[in-house]
């Protein structure tokens, strides 16, 4: 069997042979592909980024034989300006991603034994999540797993309608979607007097990092019985589909690190918890680069040493287990052989670029800036702000915006309302993901106005950060 680096070198050489854009990319830098025969030479190859590759070469040139028409399906993701990025797919690509869904449905949910209703709660249409997830789940059904797929999309009333009607015919229900949206679905059900416990619900999550407190809360509200086996987060991207999955073992480790922030900082470099997942190194070849992740993966647009700009890291299976055991981790009694795969680990905090992930949509500061430049708002503010996505005391996800007022300008409710409305307009206009992923009732940000030079949010003489993961301790 080929080793991971041999597989990565195979993707590289096939990409050179068949993809015109990549040949041109290497030629510009004077690289002789024939000399790239080992790991050292591979790791010396230039990084592929959206700036130096995707935005410079036409889409056709980035496909095999320079022909987009060879793709069998095209998915779309929107960038900071709302300009779409197109991601060609083939049946081979989707088969690889289906293996990751199979890992979750087999290992965690035992869908080979239990009749399972898979409810697709991601947005449907051209966007990556819904159709890709639907394809993966239908592949499981075709392979003989006891999976039946229903596709209400991200419409709460439709989700509840189909689940209430269909759940009694199945042994379990799997809800697949963005974490804050799925919580909203569960909370809405409970508010309407619907008891979700008889669903025997499982969760497949993607798009955002969730806290272990969030996982525990949802388990309680759904009446779940095994915290390690009842949910799994996917590390996925529009660029290459699902890269890695949470496993019962990785969840057990994450909960251990969550209870020991000092150990989390020692292992991951930060006390906050990343998503901790395991990956197949023969399907996705990961590398670490200055605290961020690179990967090589075959696909409709092959990716070689692609710098996705996610902050994170990797560790071999043995190294991670040795680290954890040496610091007191004990394998939970309920962890069985289905939850134990000796695969390497990858952890991810999120994009290193200054974006905020909200209901699976990237909220870019540039779009907030546009809103603050509207008249008369630009006369009230300095242009500085802090954008955050936070969980409130009810564990609901909120988009919060702190805006610095110009000197001498006083805060009032009219200004708050005008800024919130302008931000919603800007995001709806420039981000199709925000418009379609974020429920209407959550699109309006909670706005706070701070005086110029506020030491908590806008300290003088300090390089300003437009996004934060958490509030300052003094706030």
What can you tell me about this protein's structure?
The protein is 34% helix and 23% strand. A hairpin with a 5-residue loop joins strand 11 (292-297) and strand 12. The protein is globular, with a radius of gyration of 23 Å. The strands form 5 sheets. The chain has a 6-stranded mixed sheet with strand order 4-3-5-6-7-8, sandwiched between helices. The model has no long low-confidence stretch (mean pLDDT 90). The protein is of the alpha/beta class and 475 residues long.
List its salient traits.
475 residues, Phenylacetate--CoA ligase family protein, ligase activity, ANL_N_sf, ligase, 6-stranded mixed sheet, alpha/beta, 5-stranded antiparallel sheet, 15 helices
Q: What topology emerges from the helices and strands here?
A:
Blueprint: H1 4-18, H2 20-28, H3 39-43, H4 50-54, E1 73-78, E2 84-89, H5 91-107, E3 116-120, H6 128-142, E4 147-150, H7 156-166, E5 172-177, H8 179-191, E6 201-206, H9 212-222, E7 231-237, E8 241-245, H10 248-259, H11 261-268, E9 275-278, E10 285-289, E11 292-297, E12 303-315, H12 317-326, E13 345-351, E14 356-358, E15 361-363, H13 365-372, E16 381-391, E17 397-405, H14 413-430, H15 432-437, E18 446-450
Parallel strand pairs: 3-4, 3-5, 5-6, 6-7, 17-18
Antiparallel strand pairs: 1-2, 7-8, 9-13, 10-11, 11-12, 12-13, 14-15, 16-17
Helix pairs in contact: 5-6, 13-14
């Amino acid at each position: 069997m080929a080793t991971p680096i041999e597989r990565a070198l195979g993707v590289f050489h096939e990409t050179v042979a068949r993809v015109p854009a990549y040949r041109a990319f290497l030629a510009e830098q004077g690289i002789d592909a024939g000399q790239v025969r080992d790991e050292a030479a591979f790791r010396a190859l230039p990084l592929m980024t959206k700036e130096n590759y995707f935005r410079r070469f036409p889409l056709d040139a980035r496909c095999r034989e320079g022909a987009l028409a060879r793709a069998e399906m095209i998915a779309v993701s929107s960038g900071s300006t709302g300009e779409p990025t197109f991601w060609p797919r083939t049946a081979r690509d989707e088969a690889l991603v289906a293996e990751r869904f199979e890992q979750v449905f087999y290992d965690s949910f035992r869908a080979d034994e239990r009749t399972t209703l898979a409810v697709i709660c991601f947005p449907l249409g051209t966007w990556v999540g819904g159709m890709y997830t639907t394809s993966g789940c239908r592949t499981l059904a075709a392979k003989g797993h006891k999976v039946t797929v229903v596709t209400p999309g991200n419409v709460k009333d439709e989700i509840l309608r189909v689940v209430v009607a269909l759940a009694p015919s199945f042994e379990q229900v799997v809800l697949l979607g963005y974490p804050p949206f799925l919580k909203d679905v569960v909370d809405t059900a409970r508010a309407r007097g619907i008891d979700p416990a008889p669903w025997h619900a499982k969760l497949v999550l993607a798009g955002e990092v969730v806290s272990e407190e969030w996982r525990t809360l949802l388990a309680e509200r759904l009446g779940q019985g095994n915290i390690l086996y009842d949910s799994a987060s996917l590390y996925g991207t529009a660029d290459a589909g699902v890269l890695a999955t949470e496993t019962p073992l990785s969840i057990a480790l994450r909960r251990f690190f969550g209870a020991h922030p000092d150990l989390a900082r020692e292992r991951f470099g930060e006390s906050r918890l990343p998503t901790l997942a395991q990956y197949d190194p023969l399907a996705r070849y990961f590398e670490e680069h200055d605290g961020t992740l690179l990967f090589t993966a075959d696909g409709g647009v092959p990716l070689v040493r692609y710098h996705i700009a996610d902050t994170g890291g990797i560790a071999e299976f043995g190294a991670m287990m040795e680290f954890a055991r040496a610091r007191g981790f004990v394998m939970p009694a309920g962890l069985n052989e289905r939850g134990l795969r000796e695969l390497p680990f990858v952890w991810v905090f999120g994009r290193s670029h200054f974006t905020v992930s909200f209901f699976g949509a990237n909220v870019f500061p540039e779009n907030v800036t546009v809103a603050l430049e509207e008249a008369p708002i630009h006369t009230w503010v300095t242009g500085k702000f802090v954008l955050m996505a936070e969980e409130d005391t009810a564990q609901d996800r909120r988009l919060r915006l702190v805006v610095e007022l110009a000197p001498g300008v006083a805060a009032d409710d009219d200004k708050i309302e005008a800024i919130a409305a302008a931000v919603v307009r800007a995001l709806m206009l420039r981000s199709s993901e925000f418009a379609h992923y974020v429920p209407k009732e959550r699109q309006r940000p909670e706005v706070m106005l701070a005086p110029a030079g506020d030491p908590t949010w806008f300290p003088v003489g300090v390089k300003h950060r437009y996004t934060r993961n958490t509030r300052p301790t003094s706030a």
